[in-house]
## 1
Amino acid sequence: MFSLKVRFKPSFWLTVFTIPVFFILLCLGTWQVYRLNWKTNLIKEFNDNFNDAPLTLNEVEKNYLNFKYRRIKVNGTFDHENEIHLIGKTYEGSAGFHIVTPLIMNNEKTVLINRGWVPKKYLNKNSRKFTLLEGKVNLIGIIKFPQEKGMFVPDNEPENGFWFTINPEEIFTYIKIKGEKNFYIDLLRSDTKLILPIAIDGKIDLPNNHLQYAFTWFSLAFGLIFIYFSWHKSKGLLKY
């Protein structure tokens, strides 16, 4: 009967190094698989909700938690005096700001509208008077929930004019206006011609490279094991 005898004398320090690194690499690969599923479901949720018919504000207010990424149609008058500027936004590689403006609706309710991107030279309202729309406007946008601050994102500093995230409750408290605190609206472009502020086009643009990241981490993990045993074999510590 065929039998295989394996003699293995592991190096203490190499083993102490290899085992935790191997499991760390496995965890990183597993995390990327989780992120892959999360991102895939997020893109599907966005596309499914975006393609549904636009809602009215009254419909959304009844159960806003069910309407993330849904389109909504609103009308009212912009309160340009209380607009805020979101820092650190880019458009096609150019740095700039997002203009977030309260919209006072016909029923006297107020909601925040993220109107879109402007370059730094148009940050001051006096340099872009053509963007300060007067009178009633009819808009279609996407429902968004208050942004969560990331680990490396600074806190908003309203007194200094530094806004990094859109938090309706914080914004309305600062400008001393009563408004919708549970969500805000990202304005959608009404046509193909770009005008300032440049609103979103509704096309989801989320990189989804987690599969290749997972493959990289898993490859490194099993590559490490291959090197570990190859080293032992080359030193005569592994024989079979």
## 2
Amino acid sequence: MTMTSKDEPTSVFDQIKAGLADSVAFSQGKLSLETTELPAPPPQRAPRQIAALRKSLRMSQAVFAATLNVSKKTLQSWEQGLRKPGDASLRMLQVIHIEPGVVQKVFSVKTGTNKTRVAAKRGNRISSGRVAAKRKGASVAGKPKR
């Protein structure tokens, strides 16, 4: 059951009756309805198109995967044709293809820890100075290796 503006319960019959009355009013031109056109589904991308887009942005697989918020293995499987990207990823690929500068705009936030945060989120797959130093066993920010 839905509630009216006065918080009184409305029966299913009343809801159907109101819907039919609206339908008749629309048919007679007494009621106008706003329609919204949905966007077309994103275009499919061939494996070589995905790899070409990544290369045109001069990104490694790890960085491009982080940009799309997928794992490096997922991106590799797309580029090898083993798997196909889902609709959300296809939409992101479409946006990046049409407007490549959007990647730079979105990821140019200078927080000082952005690379480290992304690397940690991706299991230290993205090489930032701090993460690379930890992998090599060097000291980080003057702290000796334990």
## 3
Amino acid sequence: MAVAEPAKVVPVEIPVQTVQMPFASVDTPPSATPEEVQATTRDLQVTEYDKKLPQLSWSRVVCQSELTPALVHALQKGLQREGWMPGTLDGKLGERTLQAVKDFQKQKGIESSHIAYKALEWLEVLKDKN
């Protein structure tokens, strides 16, 4: 669907209405009753212990709105150039492309279930965007 013109702000005059609301007086001050809340915890599974504490890693990832066909196509070309098999270079984020990204990121030590910016940098996908 094509848009004929961009969105614009249209001022609208809204008349002021004053309404008298009945109210009851408050005879007791507000109070709070302490309540005990059960803590929520999770277990962290460590499969190997080398006398260092497990580290959580955070990676900046690509948002869904940023996954344009041009970006996906550049990603596919970068993966193919590095020897990964992303499938057809069609700019569509299909199963083979997602698997190639997952395998590439795993090999590079990126623990993310999404497409990480670090992977785009390694694949030189962002070199023309900066």
## 4
Amino acid sequence: MDIAILTLLGLTSGFISGLFGIGGGIILTPLLAIFGVPLAGAAAISSLQIVFSAAFNLVARSKEKAVNYKLGLVLAAGSIFGSLTGIAIISIIKKYNGVDLFISLVFVFVLGLLAWVNLKSAFSSKSINAQNYHSQSLHKTQNLLSFAFLTKSFAAGIFAGFLMPIMGVGGGFVIVPFLLYIGKVDKNVAVCTSIFQMLIASCFTSFINVFFIGNIDFKIALFVIIGAVASVNLGGLVSKKTSPELFKKMLGFLMLSVALYFAFKIYIQH
């Protein structure tokens, strides 16, 4: 593939990652597939890219002090546990040559469902006063470090982690809505805590991909990573200026667009 195209894909993924606090895999994986990379390989490259984009994103947002580290560690622990299950399932399906169809179906159903949740909330909820919304603190909301909520967080992490090796995502598109809708936290806290969780979990997934599975094309990954790192901070700056309502709508429409792409892909090929 052309170096300029790979870098452009990385720039797009990095911006999306910084904007929504997600890994960028929901857009990078399908884009790499469009340019001829097998979905399993695209997912692996995307997971590796997330390590670098999440690290740079977290450093850029360090002054915000918006990460709840205890909650992030619980989410990351769940994600690591879930990713092992996802890796095992992908390995089994590979034997039957059904990986591309399986990954496409996961994109359709998971992103379709989450798009519906985000858009329903964004268009049905009453306008929130921005000052009141941003004055919320993670430590003042409904017992987020209680055993009950930490259990829910661990379960959310398992689901997000399960999707990581399958879709090449960081799980942020699961964790951010979970923290926004269930935890009722400030948008920046949800985004930054999600980035912290992604950094830990994606390091684990990439380690497995590199040393045990070996389905990463490092020549492609290098230029994708360069582009992602270059644009992730810009996405973060835009995110800070985005209202909670607009944030939910943009994330919802992004998910819906990707889900529709894979649905069309399945229809054409099968």
